[in-house]
From TrEMBL:
Its EC number is 4.2.1.47. One of its GO terms (molecular function) is kinase activity. It comes from the Bacteria. It comes from Pseudomonas benzopyrenica. This is GDP-mannose 4,6-dehydratase. Pathway: Bacterial outer membrane biogenesis; LPS O-antigen biosynthesis. InterPro entries: Epimerase_deHydtase (IPR001509), NAD(P)-bd_dom_sf (IPR036291). The keyword Transferase applies. Keywords: Kinase, Lyase, Transferase. Belongs to the NAD(P)-dependent epimerase/dehydratase family. It holds the Pfam family Epimerase. Residues 7-230 form the NAD-dependent epimerase/dehydratase domain.
Amino acid sequence: MAKAGKILVTGATGFTGQALCRALSNSGWMVHGLTQSGRQSMEACTLHQADLTDSHSLTRVLEAIRPDQVVHLAAKAFVGSSDNTAFYTTNVIGTCNLLDASRSVGIKRAIVVSSANVYGVPKDNSAITEEVWPAPVNHYAASKLAMEHLARTYTSSFPVVITRPFNYTGPGQDISFLVPKLVKHFLDRAPSIELGNLDVFRDFTSIEDVVSAYVSLIASDVDSTTLNICSGTAVSLGELIACLERLSGHRIDVKSVEKFSRQNEIPVLLGSNEKIKSLLSWDITKSIEDILADMLAKGR
């Protein structure tokens, strides 16, 4: 098991980054966060400002910190974005810049966060294992797969663990994401909601369980590999709405609107978590009902 030391978390001020920095700090790590925003301070970590596309600023920051490990969360992540160039500039070139800087200071391991979107449209509805051949269907997913391939070229210098998280959510996630948008409408007792394609199934994990997976991985001796992070259960959009109606006691009229439908929508995205459970002492603790109840109780 790795001893707690210095760790750098990119995307530290984001939804996942803030939760991970708090958990690592509570576990005894000296946490440094990288951000491109103007935010100057965060209780759980020391923040540093640098642009992933600026290799010189990244190298200066890493030389000053000299972390033992790097967790790379930062990404251009909104699938519906029309700025396709930014996906590749940030997710591919930015990641290579970070790994180059990490190699120059002699880090012990990098954990690079990819996405389950790299799998594309599954051939059937069975749980996707890490051995399934990726087939991305949008620029976000394609940039993440390119990032994975290039990240693996660094494994001769240090271990690189690639994670492929499936959908996850929890209190505090931005309402541009599906589940917080749903929860907000139920909290507001809205009479109706406009959504895109209703016939989709997703594998949802709580933010707490995702962070727990990262903390366990960071403390482990797991070498270069690829790991899904998921619940192993897929629920439909209709099931999410029915669960929220049951928990809140509020009924809502759902309208399917074309402008919210994505081209090349993946109908079912269900992951297998057997590999990560076999390598780490980790498992799911919260069901989708638990997650939704938390979000309603905490005002999203």
